[in-house]
Write a structure and sequence with these properties.
487 residues, 20 strands, 15 helices, alpha/beta, binds nicotinamide-adenine-dinucleotide, single chain, 6-stranded mixed beta sheet
């Protein structure tokens, strides 16, 4: 089977600036590879500060007309974008599988995501304010910032691209966005469909390149009025420092070390498969992955044995085979995950399952690792505190609710937390007590059960929210108006 079928959505060596597909100013390129085979899928421009500058100028030029486009018309254009995405959904899913290496999960749900945000475009409203004088009216307006900058990671490039782009433009901003160098092809395809939908040139600009080159140039550019970043905490901190220099507001979607807290009264038939999916989906490269099992000692042995059994049945292979788990994204991530496995063993955790590279010819080229389970993990170990971003699950035993809460909250992160219990009182106490932007009880967050739920972090997992109706408001600033008639 050829692994780079002529996906008509692949765009060769061009980035989108002011409605034109252009190479990098310096002509340099980066190869995008399929992480299962290392086969080159496409070349992309290796953009830098000069490309970002051209893109910001294009976005500035497009801003006044887009800001003044009636909100109902902006909504209609976003709806049309969603329709085109739906028509190309299979190709888009294939493209994302190819560049991320993910076996097919089923549709990514991007049209639904886009429609939800499109529906908010004409519902951005302010307040009417009381006045102390009879001939005046007070009100607030919610206005766009201007040019928004955004940098996104590689793990779910399509949904991430829409998460940043759709709310920003729905609110009347224009955007310059940089996808990750490892997985920019789905974002380009989505941008192409946005243009085809009639979203005017210059409203969505996509620049590609390496983080320290094209990425760092975005928050450093004086034309950027608002910034969004999704990625790792150290890079988030550097983007925040650049924003501080220019006094630009930002939101950060960073990593996680999300606990799965299991009590003795949990329904393990539901919990175990959900936990295994949470840590093996996308090969564990999901910010919301439930990577720590915090389990009451009363059910510890049963939980570990059932987790080991379920994880041993997770099939691994290239995305085009009917398997559940693909490779990691690149050589750096591969080394990082294997180093964490070593650190778990060095610190005294018990390796129950996996920990290595699977055997077989098909695994020789790609960046594969086995689903990995550690027991006997203590909260101070690195594998209990640091985000691995791989299919490595750490089990920590606790005694009772108080310790479960303390361990659950015992990392710098606070993105997602899941609680598994049959006791409603305990569920409420845990939902209130867990320091995370999202808490689920007897359920996983994935799967689209929730409509319009805001998504974001507590603590070092970031701040600001994407996805819900508030996401559009994040891209507006409030103007207070006092309107007084002539005396
Ligand atoms: P990363 O921070 O290395 O890269 C993310 C993006 O930042 C890429 O586009 C990269 O090119 C760019 N970048 C790198 N250096 C930069 C710099 N100096 N200035 C500006 N941009 C720069 O992260 P990653 O390893 O690609 O992604 C994995 C991380 O992303 C994990 O920590 C994961 O938890 C996090 N993530 C969070 C969410 C969320 O919603 N909270 C979602 C997905 C991924």
């Amino acid at each position: 089977m050829t692994l780079a079928p002529t996906n008509t959505l692949i765009i060769d060596n061009a980035q989108l600036i002011g409605g034109e597909w252009v190479p990098a100013a310096n002509g340099d390129t980066i190869d995008v590879i399929n992480p299962a085979t290392r086969e080159v899928l496409a070349r992309i421009p290796r953009g830098g500060a000069a490309d970002v500058d051209t893109a910001v100028r294009a976005a500035e030029a497009a801003f006044p007309a887009w800001r003044d486009t009636p909100p109902g018309q902006r909504a209609a254009l976003l709806m049309r974008w969603a329709e085109l995405v739906e028509q190309h959904e299979k190709e888009l899913d294939l493209l994302e599988s190819q560049e991320v290496g993910r076996p097919h999960w089923g549709p990514l749900g991007i049209p639904r995501q886009l429609r939800f945000i499109a529906g908010q475009a004409d519902k951005v409203s302010g307040l009417s304010l009381p006045t102390n004088v009879p001939d005046a009216i007070g009100l607030t307006l919610r206005e766009p910032f201007g040019v928004v900058g955004a940098v996104i990671p590689w793990n779910a490039p399509g949904p991430m691209f829409v998460n940043e782009t759709a709310p920003a433009i729905a609110a009347g901003n224009t955007i310059v966005i940089k996808p990750a160098e490892d997985a920019p092809l789905t974002p380009f395809a989505l941008a192409k469909l946005a243009l085809e939908a009639g979203i005017p040139p210059g409203v969505v600009n996509v620049v590609t390149g390496y983080g320290p080159e094209a990425g760092a140039a975005i928050p450093a550019h004086p034309g950027i009025r608002k910034m969004g970043f999704t990625g790792s905490p150290p890079t988030g901190a550097s983007v925040m420092a650049a924003c501080a220099k220019n006094l630009v507001p930002l939101h950060l979607e960073l990593g996680g070390k999300s606990p799965q807290v299991i009590f003795p009264d949990a329904d393990l038939d539901t919990a175990i498969p959900a936990i295994v999916t949470s840590i093996t989906l996308n090969t564990g490269q999901i910010c919301a992955a439930g990577s720590r099992v915090v389990v009451d000692r009363a059910v510890h042995d049963e939980v570990v044995s059932r987790l080991a059994d379920a994880m041993a049945h997770v099939t691994v292979g290239p995305w085009y085979q009917p398997v559940r788990m693909g490779p990691l994204i690149n050589a750096k991530q591969h080394k990082r995950v294997l180093d964490y496995v070593q650190s778990g063993q060095d610190e005294g955790a018990e390796l129950v399952l996996g920990g290595g590279v699977p055997d077989g010819e098909v695994f020789e080229q790609g960046f594969f690792v086995e689903p990995t389970l550690f027991d006997g993990v203590t909260p101070e170990m690195r594998i209990a505190r640091e985000e691995i971003f791989g299919p490595v699950l750490s089990v920590i035993a606790v005694d009772g609710e108080e310790e479960a809460l303390a361990v659950g909250n015992g990392t710098d992160y606070g993105l997602v937390a899941a609680v598994w219990t049959g006791d409603i009182g305990r569920a409420v106490r845990m939902a209130r007590g867990l320091q995370a932007g999202q808490v689920t009880v007897n359920a996983a967050l994935a799967g689209g059960a929730l409509v319009g739920g805001p998504f974001g972090g507590y603590k070092h997992s970031g701040f600001g929210r994407t996805m819900g109706a508030d996401a559009v408001l994040e891209y507006t600033q409030v103007k207070t108006v006092l309107l007084r008639g002539n005396a």
